[in-house]
Amino acid sequence: MLKGIGSNVYRVCTTGKLWNPKDKDLKITDRLMNGIPVRLYEPVTSLQQTNRPVFIYIHGGGWTFLSVDNYDLFNQRLSKETGVVIISVEYRLSPQNPYPAGLDDIKNVVSYVFNNARDLGVDPGRIAVGGDSAGGNLAAAVQLRPEMRGKIAMLILLVPVLQAVNMKTIGFIENVEYLNKSINDPQMTNFFLNYLNLDHSLCGAFLNNLHTSADFKRGKYKFLFDQQTYLPDKYIRSKELRLKRPEVEYIGNETLFKELKDKLTDPTIFPLMASDEELSHFPFTYVLAAGYDLIRDDAIMFAERLRHLNKDVELSHIADGFHNALLMFDGPLQTNVGVRIVNDIIRVLEKI
Questions:
Q1: CA dist 244 to 196, 247, 304, Å?
Q2: Whole-model pTM over 0.90
Q3: Which residues contact 259 (CB under 8 A, 6 or more apart)?
């Protein structure tokens, strides 16, 4: 109940509306797909077509809160402007339903769309999957499920959460002073704990990078700590940090890390942990990074890894962007950056 109240308050604040109006140019339907609640947005001009592109959207909220209602006007805008069928997924949330519940829901919806494309009037070869924040995480993670290979034609990862081993990235250091008691509050780390079904008492260990070990920081995931390979200088605002990147603190808690290792290094939980071979199967991937986002570097490093593998990837770094700006494209909290982000997403969707 409290989650629902919070989501409704957030929706009213961002949209300025007590309820979401329905665009007359769209057919909007709530239904089930493989038992998972979804909201379907279809342009009325394409209802008789059988080869329409489709975008499966996964909302943000730290795997913990928000719903398809919070993204209703956003998805109406995307569908109307692009002519793409949008399927917004009401996946199960943590901590009541920790990993892999939400990811299983996304997998089941993607499979349903692929297997029932003809009945839905969509092209099984033109399925895009994407989302923001935790939704971006789930979009990348579902692609890493072996049974999903060949079913997804495009990934759209918007300010995605992609790792939980380094809470002291350069992006975190640069941005923690901005919106500190809001979207950039370090206590948002508790969302990781909700998703992983871990106790909130571990928040301090995560924030101080004491949840891994010194040997781990020197191993094959070293790039997540020193960031030399996958964080180009042009994305770092601070001249001081560009000239002298933070030294890695080779400290940790070996006992705790042994308990957490399987979760922290599982690519279907945190996709930046994926191997090169796993990433080699990715389709065209659009990645949006926000310059003033605590997890800015997750998006940048992921895109750079794909680029190093010669994959088809586009990184859109919005230097003046912040984590939840994409929902501020209209309404009382409309921002110029929110408008630009949504317009860029529309541009990419038109490529499906």
A1: 34, 8, 21
A2: yes
A3: none
Distance CA 56, CA 139 (A): 9
- Contacts of residue 118, defined as CB under 8 A and 6 or more positions apart, other chains included, come to 50
CA-CA distances (angstroms) from residue 240 to 13, 233, 243?
38, 11, 5
C-alpha 54/C-alpha 115 separation (Å) is 13
Write out the chain's pLDDT in tens, 352 residues. 555 655 665 665 566 666 678 999 999 999 999 999 999 999 999 999 999 999 999 999 999 999 999 999 999 999 999 999 999 999 999 999 999 999 999 999 999 999 999 999 999 999 999 999 999 999 999 999 999 999 999 999 999 999 999 999 999 999 998 877 777 788 889 999 999 999 999 999 999 999 999 999 999 999 999 999 999 999 999 999 999 999 999 999 999 999 999 999 999 999 999 999 999 999 999 999 999 999 999 999 999 999 999 999 999 999 999 999 999 999 888 999 999 999 999 999 999 9
Instruction: Give the count of alpha carbons within 13 A of 268, CB side only.
Output: 16
Tokens in use for 5? 């109240």
Tokens of 265: 């290094």
Rounded to whole angstroms, the Cα distance separating 137 from 104 reads 13
Report yes or no: 335 and 179 within 8 Å, Cβ to Cβ: no
Q: What is the DSSP string of 101-139?
A: HHHHHHHHHHHHHHHTHHHHTEEEEEEEEEEETHHHHHH
CA 288 to chain CA centroid, Å, is 9
CA distance 329 to 5: 23
Shortest CA distance to 46 belongs to which of 85, 87, 86? 85
